[in-house]
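Closing statement on the flavin-adenine dinucleotide sub-project.
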Amino acid sequence: MTQTCVIVGASHAAAQLAPILRQEGWEGRIVVVGDEPYIPYHRPPLSKTFLSGEKTLEDIYIRPQMVYDKAEIEFLLNTRVEAIDREKRILSLNNGETLAYDKLALTVGSRVRKVDLPGIDLEGIYYLRDANDVEQIKSKVKEGKHAVIVGGGYIGLETAAALRKQGMDVTVLEMMERVLQRVTAPEISEFYDRVHKEEGVKICCGVGVASFAGNTNVEKVICSNGDEYAADLVVVGVGIVPNVELADAAGLEVNNGIVVDQFARTSDHDIVAAGDCTNHHNVLYDINIRLESVQNATDQARVAAQTLCGKEKAYDALPWFWSDQYDLKLQIAGLSQGYDEVIVRGDRDNSRSFAAFYLRGGVVIAVDAVNKAPEFMVGKRLITGKVAVDKMQLADENIPIKELLT
Ligand SMILES: Cc1cc2nc3c(=O)[nH]c(=O)nc-3n(C[C@H](O)[C@H](O)[C@H](O)COP(=O)(O)OP(=O)(O)OC[C@H]3O[C@@H](n4cnc5c(N)ncnc54)[C@H](O)[C@@H]3O)c2cc1C
């Protein structure tokens, strides 16, 4: 009897898990159930080239349909899994049908954090998580009109850059003292603040949004300090929350994400999970963490597929991430939490190319590299090698970065 593996969620993790499962020898049915209408697409371009109109949805499909067809991977799109009966191994779907599984993979990702403020339901106010959100945002993009971005994180800043490039008058409102405060050192925040201002974006930090006003479409954003900003379009980007409810209701262990072991297994031996929705132990940093990145979704999905095929390989990849804004390619390796020193390499104040190395006890634990691919590459090796570096050499651009490895 052939077995069925069902994958819930059709995005980055699923697009990796399903073909790898086949490659690793899974002979039974593979069914991917996704509540969006599309086969998996790259989410990062949503706030970059898809928003700016440079790429279409077809351009950003992770794999063409024929790859799935060839591997006999079935899709049930526009379909939501509502409940998991672990005893009977049956899923309840939102169309009233059921689907039996032998093995289950949860790649349900995360959703936007919503704000509950007066006026939030006005037209012209959007969150940004999927292709449909961006289609709606695009319909409001017009040169010379006012866009207000609520939240100065990566998504907010990338959206600001894409809208500014299309000639909108853009303001970013950030509640914290600086942009990117949750994820980077002040050195990086100051740099992005400068570049956005150079590009003509207004950045206001330390301001909380109190309400939105307008007739049918939003017309202004009102802050708690009384300041008002004209707005024809508002994009709210204030973080995400993991989709854990399905797993939680089924009795799986959940703690800021679906808890998985190093083999991507949940507390049920027949259920794996991968991507944004998981919380796992990172061996390199010795912490439990939930990551929000394509690298994590992809690498953990591979491990999950191998586990389902009985070929257990521990997940120990170094976390990395990127962000594109204007002509800036930021590449981030490692986790900077707990750093005690930042060493800057390059002219951060006057150029658009530099790297910031985060150190703890003299050892590099993370790097943020802006238009500095070699520093990113070497940084990765310094982190995994737990190398104690000479700080003077690290800061000196005249010394080739590769020399730090010797
Ligand atoms: C605008 C934007 C820009 C980004 N930029 C970057 C970047 O530059 N670099 C980077 O590394 N990362 C970036 N990310 C993050 C990256 O896209 C995510 O880490 C990645 O999408 C995670 O993939 P995933 O498969 O775990 O989950 P998701 O992409 O969240 O997909 C989960 C899917 O499951 C579906 N689903 C949930 N519950 C159910 C259910 N019960 N039944 C059926 N389907 C369900 C969801 O609707 C969704 O389609 C960005 C994200 C966004 C939104």
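The pocket of flavin-adenine dinucleotide is lined by residues 8-14, 33-36, 43-44, 46-47, 80-81, 107-110, 128-129, 155, 243, 246, 275-276, 292-295, 297, 321-323 (CB under 6 Å). With this model delivered, the sub-project is considered complete and its resources will be redirected to Aim 3.
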